[in-house]
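Colleagues,

For the teaching module next term, I've prepared a clean inverse folding example: a structure given as tokens, and then the sequence designed for it. I'd like students to try predicting residues themselves before seeing the answer, so please don't circulate the second half yet.
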């Protein structure tokens, strides 16, 4: 025995498209949230180019986290602490930037 709509064709619900809005403000916690949004609008291309630019900035910041970790490792364990400190700094920096939404693939 069928239900109330037994002969109706069943289908999967459609995926909702994300509203991209026009003129939305900067994302909270992003590089553009500190009042530099208008500066970036003037000098950095919008769209894919801007995303790639800021992903490059994140890559450089990750290397700097690694460098600081290597210096800290050298300060704590001498020459043997440079490599683990560099690796720890890189991993910690990459995870921090990824979790805060700075890096967007």
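(Answer key — instructors only)
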């Amino acid at each position: 025995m069928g239900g109330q709509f037994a002969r109706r064709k069943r289908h999967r619900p459609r995926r909702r498209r994300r509203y991209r809005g026009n003129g939305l403000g900067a994302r909270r916690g992003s590089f553009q949230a500190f009042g530099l949004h208008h500066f970036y609008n003037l000098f950095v291309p919008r769209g894919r180019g801007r995303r790639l630019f800021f992903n490059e900035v994140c890559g450089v910041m990750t290397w700097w986290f690694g460098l600081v970790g290597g210096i800290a490792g050298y300060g704590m364990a001498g020459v043997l602490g440079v490599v683990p400190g560099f690796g720890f700094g890189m991993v910690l920096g990459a995870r921090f930037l990824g979790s805060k939404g700075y890096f967007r693939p």
